[in-house]
Amino acid sequence: MRLTFYNKFKQDLLEAKQEVIIESPFIATRRLEKLKPVFETLVDRGIKVFIMTRDPLEHDESMSKQAEAGIRYFEALGVQILLCSGVITES
Asked: Is 0.70 topped by the overall pTM?
């Protein structure tokens, strides 16, 4: 398997023992579809998952709809979503 960022990210997520905290300015539908099985596995294992993301109202219309759908998915799964205002940087 070619080790890309997302392959390594999935691997790191699946190695979590207690909790996962993700800071991401965007929740894009295409990427979420690829990561759903990982998040479902984490929740099934009792791993607490927290996602800090930008408020959907701060996105353009297309990204706003994707973010809202992603947030609904995560909340239904039992993931804690923390909406942030302003710029979220990747550091």
From this structure: yes
